[in-house]
Amino acid sequence: MHCFAEVGTKMVELPAILLLSKAGVKKRNRNLKPLLEVEGQSDHELILNAKNRGFFKKQKPYYK
Residue 43 needs a FRET pair 20 to 30 A away by CA distance; which of 1, 7, 28, 32 works? Predict the structure, then answer.
């Protein structure tokens, strides 16, 4: 199973994509910020920092 969220996906939509509760998504978000040294910054900064560190790989296009 592949879990891909598009750019601009809202936090409330993530539980359906990731199969986690809303509280679970928020908890992971809160725990990742200190690890990636972006405490007190936006979620966007968290994503950019994670991308720069190589936590995301490029997604191959999906064709039916």
Answer: 1
